[in-house]
Design goal:
By secondary structure, the protein is mostly helical. Helices cover about 65% and strands about 5% of the residues. It starts with a helix and ends with a helix. It is built from 20 helices and 4 strands. A hairpin with a 2-residue loop joins strand 2 and strand 3. The chain has 3 domains: about 220 residues, Clc chloride channel (Orthogonal Bundle); about 190 residues, Clc chloride channel (Orthogonal Bundle), CATH 1.10.3080.10; about 80 residues, 2-Layer Sandwich (Alpha-Beta Plaits).
């Protein structure tokens, strides 16, 4: 961080009211550009997926020679995807861990290169049939678009992080037509606090991007769950059972994602190109025999919501979608597992509903309810974002009367995942990304950043004087915000729960400084004796 950037940051902190108003306006600007980028991505993906459906319809009635030529084409597509992965490694995968890393100050992204590579390679990979979703990439696209806006406006790094968070919010909102979920995801999962300077631009960006998305794609929800019956209160116990089942499935899914590298460590996969070939060849065969598992899976969820499916078929779809998603994501191709994860949750719910109906525990009319309950639970167990899971599924299905049952399911799934020792998937992926490539040019070394730290109730620094806090080396507390009040800190200033601290520190100490505001003291857990 240069001296001029530090001075700009100080000026912003000293003009807090104007700073928040400016962030709101910039959030609208970010929402416009992010919304347009995601709409372009969605449009191209729709064309690619329709093209894939037409290709397989034609190939099923064609000669063996033409079918063989299609697999040759898949080998060529693998080569193109391999080139993109090497050209811009930060565009690989879902992009959400990368965005979290940028917000923490641990990773840097070349926003323009990531933008066009993510769109191009994402369309090619998902269009070719890989079990990847558009939502994770949309979040990264929104984030890098916001980064571009920040760079063009000459904003400081502190302000840029707020804008990146708002861009990620806009990305999810535009991808899922779910503005509230976009805001909550950015706050709960990415930035991890609800300060006004995070909330205002995130809301502005999410709402603006959603308006743009609805102009191009209409106001319909992503999933078509029509005429949902209100789930009876006396069936609450069954919600708990379904949530536990989905929670266990979510933990297994995370375990698979985190260990798929062991499969790809086999001697036959000597380069990433071989991994991509394997995933695409799997897609080629599945396109002939089980096309429902190709791509993200929107239509499969809609099918489960409207058409009865046999238990045997549900189990086959669940197992194949699970394995194919692991193969697809493990190949390192740009594309996320956000939507495939929801598909797996829906299949888990469909199996639960089938069993409950067969045992005459619930009526057929409540089968769709069980599906959406399981989606929220599966998502929460994997990501550990229960509020996002509740709001997201509510907005995506239009089931606003199910807020309480979705919240119950998300809570139970969260506790289930905790008891089983599962790890939040995006945090674990970021940790592995930073640990596996410590010398990557995308990593930031020796730079200093001003970061925002939220002081949680019961944290290790609550009610302590600044001089008594064990700060990392070369760290300076420059400002304290307490409600609408601004406190110029000195050594005798006490830190209170709910304070927002603005700290100048080295990039390598960012996580440790943030943890100071989150770590709980032992006496707050066991009481003072």
């Amino acid at each position: 961080m240069t001296k001029s950037q530090v001075m700009k940051t100080y000026k912003s902190l000293n003009n807090w009211h104007n700073f928040r108003i400016r962030l709101f306006g910039e959030g609208v600007l970010v929402g416009i550009f992010a919304g347009l980028a995601i709409c372009l991505f969605r449009f191209l993906l729709d064309l690619a997926e329709k093209g894939r459906t037409n290709i397989y319809a034609h190939l099923n009635a064609s000669s063996i020679l033409l079918n063989a030529l299609w697999f040759v084409g898949l080998l060529l597509i693998a080569g193109v995807l391999y080139f993109f992965c090497k050209h811009e490694p930060m565009a690989a995968g879902s992009g959400i861990p990368q965005v979290k890393g940028v917000i923490l100050g641990a990773i840097k992204m070349r926003w323009l290169r990531v933008l066009w590579v993510k769109i191009t390679a994402g369309v090619i990979g998902i269009g070719a049939g890989l079990s990847l979703g558009r939502e994770g990439p949309s979040i990264q696209l929104g984030a890098v678009t916001a980064q571009g806006v920040s760079r063009m406006l000459g904003r400081t790094r502190l302000e840029e992080k707020y804008l990146i968070t708002s861009g990620a919010s806009a990305g999810l909102a535009a991808a899922f037509n779910a503005p509230l979920a976009g805001v909550i995801f950015a706050l709960e999962e990415l930035h991890r606090n609800f300060s006004a300077v995070v909330l205002l631009p995130a809301m502005a960006a999410a709402m603006t991007a959603t308006i743009i998305s609805r102009i191009f794609f209409g106001e319909d929800t992503i999933f078509n769950f029509t005429n949902l019956a209100v789930f009876p209160l006396e069936h609450t116990g069954y919600i708990v059972l379904v949530a536990i089942f989905a929670g266990v499935a979510g933990v297994i899914f995370n375990w698979g994602l985190l260990n798929i590298n062991k499969f790809y460590s086999l001697p036959i996969f000597t380069t990433q190109y071989h991994k991509i070939i394997f995933a695409l060849i799997c897609a080629g065969f599945l396109g002939f025999y089980l096309p429902e598992v190709l791509g993200g899976g929107n239509e499969l969820i809609n099918h489960l919501a409207s058409t009865p499916v046999s238990l045997k078929m549900l189990v086959v779809l669940l197992l194949v979608k699970f394995l194919f998603t692991l193969f697809s994501y493990g190949s390192g191709v740009p594309g996320g597992f956000f939507l495939p994860m929801l598909v797996l949750g829906a299949l888990t719910g469909a199996i639960s509903a089938y069993l409950l109906i067969s045992w005459e525990i619930i009526q057929v009319a409540y089968a769709a309810n069980i599906v959406i309950i399981a989606m929220a639970a599966f998502f929460t167990a994997s990501v550990r974002a229960p509020i996002t899971g509740t709001v997201l599924i509510m907005e995506m299905t239009g089931s606003f009367q199910h807020m309480m049952v979705l919240a119950i399911a998300s809570t139970i799934a969260y506790i289930t995942a905790e008891l089983l020792g599962g790890k939040p998937i995006y945090e674990e992926l970021l940790t592995r990304m930073l640990g596996n490539t410590p010398d990557s040019e995308a990593h930031i070394h020796e730079e200093r950043n001003i970061i925002e730290v939220a002081v949680c109730s019961g944290s290790s620094i609550e009610n302590k004087q600044i001089k008594d806090i064990d700060w990392p080396p070369q760290t300076l507390l420059v400002d304290v915000k307490r409600g609408e009040a601004q406190i110029v800190p000195d050594g005798n200033t006490y830190i209170r729960a709910g304070d927002f601290l603005y700290v100048l520190t080295k990039t390598e100490y960012v996580s440790k400084v943030i943890a100071l505001g989150e770590e709980i003291q032992q006496h707050h857990i066991y009481g003072d004796y």
